[in-house]
Amino acid sequence: MSVRESVEISGHLMDHGILSRVLNDIREYAGDYVIDRFDVGRETDDPSRALITVIADDDPSLQRLLMRLQTRGVNQVDPGEAEVAVAEQDGVLPEFFYSTTNLETRVRVEGTWLEVGNPEMDCGLILERDESGTPARVYTLPMSDVRAGMEVICGASGIRVTVPVPDKSAEAFGFMESEVSSEKPQAVLVRQVADGMREAKQQGKKVLWVGGPGVVHTGAAPAMVAMVEAGFVDVLFAGNALATHDIESSLFGTSLGIDLAEGRGVEHGHEHHIRALNTIRKQGSIRAAVENGVLTGGIMHSLVTHDREFVLVGSVRDDGPLPDVHTDVIEGQRAMRAKLPDVGFCLMVATMLHSVATGNILPASVPLVCVDINPATVTKLADRGSSQARGIVTDVGLFLEQLAVELVPDYRRG
Amino acid sequence: MSVRESVEISGHLMDHGILSRVLNDIREYAGDYVIDRFDVGRETDDPSRALITVIADDDPSLQRLLMRLQTRGVNQVDPGEAEVAVAEQDGVLPEFFYSTTNLETRVRVEGTWLEVGNPEMDCGLILERDESGTPARVYTLPMSDVRAGMEVICGASGIRVTVPVPDKSAEAFGFMESEVSSEKPQAVLVRQVADGMREAKQQGKKVLWVGGPGVVHTGAAPAMVAMVEAGFVDVLFAGNALATHDIESSLFGTSLGIDLAEGRGVEHGHEHHIRALNTIRKQGSIRAAVENGVLTGGIMHSLVTHDREFVLVGSVRDDGPLPDVHTDVIEGQRAMRAKLPDVGFCLMVATMLHSVATGNILPASVPLVCVDINPATVTKLADRGSSQARGIVTDVGLFLEQLAVELVPDYRRG
Amino acid sequence: MSVRESVEISGHLMDHGILSRVLNDIREYAGDYVIDRFDVGRETDDPSRALITVIADDDPSLQRLLMRLQTRGVNQVDPGEAEVAVAEQDGVLPEFFYSTTNLETRVRVEGTWLEVGNPEMDCGLILERDESGTPARVYTLPMSDVRAGMEVICGASGIRVTVPVPDKSAEAFGFMESEVSSEKPQAVLVRQVADGMREAKQQGKKVLWVGGPGVVHTGAAPAMVAMVEAGFVDVLFAGNALATHDIESSLFGTSLGIDLAEGRGVEHGHEHHIRALNTIRKQGSIRAAVENGVLTGGIMHSLVTHDREFVLVGSVRDDGPLPDVHTDVIEGQRAMRAKLPDVGFCLMVATMLHSVATGNILPASVPLVCVDINPATVTKLADRGSSQARGIVTDVGLFLEQLAVELVPDYRRG
Amino acid sequence: MSVRESVEISGHLMDHGILSRVLNDIREYAGDYVIDRFDVGRETDDPSRALITVIADDDPSLQRLLMRLQTRGVNQVDPGEAEVAVAEQDGVLPEFFYSTTNLETRVRVEGTWLEVGNPEMDCGLILERDESGTPARVYTLPMSDVRAGMEVICGASGIRVTVPVPDKSAEAFGFMESEVSSEKPQAVLVRQVADGMREAKQQGKKVLWVGGPGVVHTGAAPAMVAMVEAGFVDVLFAGNALATHDIESSLFGTSLGIDLAEGRGVEHGHEHHIRALNTIRKQGSIRAAVENGVLTGGIMHSLVTHDREFVLVGSVRDDGPLPDVHTDVIEGQRAMRAKLPDVGFCLMVATMLHSVATGNILPASVPLVCVDINPATVTKLADRGSSQARGIVTDVGLFLEQLAVELVPDYRRG
Known about the structure:
Chains A, B, C, D: Its cofactor is NAD(+). Chain A is an alpha/beta fold.
């Protein structure tokens, strides 16, 4: 016996290979399909629309498959009503909870469509009611924050997602359409990132940076400081390493002893490193170290003096850590989430761990660029279903230098 | 004006390039030196001994340089007495604290040499007295665990470190000395790792594994289960990912959808992943899931049923996490440290983050092998001054398969 | 003004993303399109068929675009007749020559469809007539072998290509469909390669190996020798390095001094290397060295004693080279081409240069697997439009060891 | 029984780890040693000197070991007289031929010390006499160019090599000594390369570039053209690919369709590529294409119009190739060798194959910098005993852009 459901998807289905992926998903989940109707966009700019009957062995399999397909923007033709179940335990979702995407999502509860305010992947959807018991709000919540008694959306019914339409500027990142053939690709890339940041600022949005210690090792700290001062760094997500290396460099004025030829910095066993940590711990916080005149330069100093925000989240390999570092990673994720509203552009530089962590919680609607000299880091991000992610494999030091030249009029003039 | 101190180092100074590194360190710390005496080992097996006068601009610089040189096994000719200062704040070491190495260390306090029981890099040395006020014990402590009032060793005086002598079996990892030319290098490597594990077990020591999700992705879980059952995995350090992928694979019996061609697994956006986490969270722990018959196979199941130990420490990119995961990384480090006594061999497989974390806290006396398909991970470990670290760049799946064939007589016979 | 042509394509257009690539190509060539009709396969196994009008600015642009689209299996609805022009210069094709794909190709000349016997990418198509002047044969020819007076097919008319249908065994390489979830992915891969070779042999076809010096460095020479003896290596394409390292290892019985930890062998500056070359040069050929009892073991020895074929083609970084090496690369390509008839399976191991060279001349109908520890090599092959290429990122030494265990019953029993 | 020889080496033996490597070599060649005397440089700048007795099983082993040690700059205390044997076959050296290093070398024949004019690795040394039969000249010759009747130096006697003293500017490439801590490492590197080129030009020497197609793919062609025009490119060594991509880009004005995100260009199956080759082949040469107005821009155009030299050497994966390409690799090596006199600086960019080929034939006295985004390429070069090689792992496009800004006053002003 088998169960079936009609689903639909529209957009530039063939241009971007979306339909291929949808059909692959169905097979991967051991399902089957019939394409009932396919209205193909005749001309280049016309959208296509497909109606597909999805078939699975039983209802649980079908529900899972439908949830999976929603990550591609596939919705049920007749969405029906969302089902709701009550969480019985803190930190645990009901068995058939709807697992979220990072796409714009609406949920129909008791006849009303509610917009999910904070799309985030791999969360549960929590229903909140007003005093009269009327459904008032649906929001994403990671399973660790679920509390017994909360109402949770279950199954795939009553839910619609919307895949963001790639706009002109996003298209530009495709690099194939570039009309000016004599242009230098690398210069084009730098300019596109600069344009993305400027546009976000013009719309009153924040620019989020996610950085690893490579920013300091490649000598890009002065470039980043210039961009902080010029207003292009509103929030920084990082770990203990970026901040410590930056502070160590400021406190001890040392050449960091980087072996550039092999692309690796001397992270450990470096006595300055551990002494820098102790110095800031003594002050109580990075801000205190700045205000007490102990820390007088570098990236962290400029973030403090220009009142930018930063969230440092620790990892198991940390020394110290700095007093500002969240040692509880779940607390750290919460602190990062709290900074996401109003972010309009995100640049990830030289860090796999914090880039993936940020990609996990960022809505698909935020333009996202990942820069690293290691192709694996760039690929990893792009793999994660963040359709908005663009990767640039290049030297972080030279890239940030060029970006500062592009964004900060006086950079390197003095 | 300048200050100076006589130091000495002995061993196979030239064979292993140690002296080059010592002199490089001196220059890097802006110091100078005179080689006062150099007794060279005439024949291949004779040790050499060097007496060097180290010169620095001022005493703080000299003390730092001396501490740095101790990481290479260089001691003061006249070690003198250790200085002691009292910690004034929780989590902060006194200004001139001695920053530790992972080498065997002795400290002379008030005329008595005390052995440091738990060598670990980048810690402070805490002095404990007995009831009569006599120095009784010196131990390493990470700065975050320091409490006000503790007595802390400062400066470089009164301290001697000993570099482990590479024994025959360690030499074998050099691969150059292999006498049987027709041997297959890869087979030799597998056998050497197997020998290292067997030797540790014969000495009544524990074998520590540090693993990443690649163990599951490359299909090596059955091989690892066989080695757990055969008694070659006493402790596992890992993150949320290895355990979750392993459990997901057992619960859902799914092909994991690995794109082996490009060496990457589908970590995220995979609905099974998040559902596996929720299932175990509902049970309360991995052990409970095993005991309740929910989890019936895989690596974590075999660790539980064979009463092996594991420490899972989280990271900022985790979903869930599993209820057994330490979400506070400092707590996680403490939990890892607690398992180190009696470890006699350490194998690190397919994880950069947890391998570096383990390398940070492991004494230099424990043989250590790091296996990864990514040369950068292997290099990173070897860089960290763990003179005992050996790296093997190979396919994790095939390597563990071969290791199981070597260690477990019946493996692949059934 | 613009020109247009009706084209068609059929197959599993959406499953494999082919249509996306076709439309991308059109845009990349500054063309436009209208999808006139799209008959979608309703059920999973039904093929789809698309009729597309392709639009370009002028006829030369259109012809180029049509040739480009043929690399995807797109043919003109009304193919018409092939145009023919005469080459005016040795080594130069007429201006609008048809640039070939590696797909099965038929050409209609003067009313007759002729099958191209030896499909190869990026060649010209030469028309041969019988004594009566009737078109008798069309074959691919690289531009360097063109002679003045030859008749060459021009433009995109009169040509049909056929994309190979991925059969079940090829599908298996997709790795996603594997039904046996408890299987070890790496073991599955080894078995699939073994199956591919066995199938080729059963069909009376030859197995072609393309190898780099890593085969010797990783200790896989004994495994390869066993497979030569067992009949699974009919032809070897390689460079000077594989053969020289293999011979050096046999002549001098030396440990090769491989630094396995960092995955690199000592290629140069190694006095044995240059002396091995001189020894074989003195003999006049590898075969002579074998027959004179100078060379008594290794891969090259087993190829000679078992009468297998090999083609060694040199490169600019070669020492020596061995007397059997083609120092002229165009001659080398010709020698390689001469061995292609009847090849039914191709395994490429540990070489970028010779793998790409072989991929250039191999018909798309030959199953092709590329094994390397470096993902870049594997990706490069897969990029080159060889739709039949499968890549495996793994350790070459362990992989060949496992392959020998799979293919050779007595291997490792002795 | 065993044989022994006294050897000596002097210099900064410990600082640079040379002595470690010498002793490793002795063990690797199954020899033994006694250090008879070791005069250690007391202060930082003093050289050290070691007298070592080297022991081997028999004379051939000893001779080989002594030749090996000469690659490290180790000479016999009593060099004695060189032995000479006559080559009996074309292309074959006598059995105990001396295998050369790329170091400055002198040979004592019949009482006279002769300087080797063209040091090159892995060659034979040929003795030339004047009309009176007096030894007049000793020069390196690759074994393929040896002719029967030539007199060849054999064994290790009568030969002295000199390791170049790293001068201040070379030291600077060490990157550790940099005094200005706030400097950006990447900017420092660019400036050092620029300084090396300027210095070579001031000394009337030539600057040699070795380049791969990545120069074009990363958009660095305009930067390189500017440096050609400014006189900083005297000779270019490359393959068919760099020249063809550059020409294709000029002829067709196309965006090259580079997938920068993944760092790979579309090399093949690209119809423009094969058509560009045909166009130049029709002209007969790149120069003819420039003179006939067919080729009007790009790197190759600027080399021709500014009368710079280039040597293109083919490989087995080439299409076409361009008419200027040496298809015989041994001929190609000869053509490259002919351009080496007066080269005073060498920059290798984005090519493994041609970089290794150039490293093989370049004297150790020529400063050499290798730039690539792939650490493996950089490491490979540095491994090959070219003590003068410096590697920079960075983005080729941004690096050349910055180098042009540094070297060409008006670059990017227009």
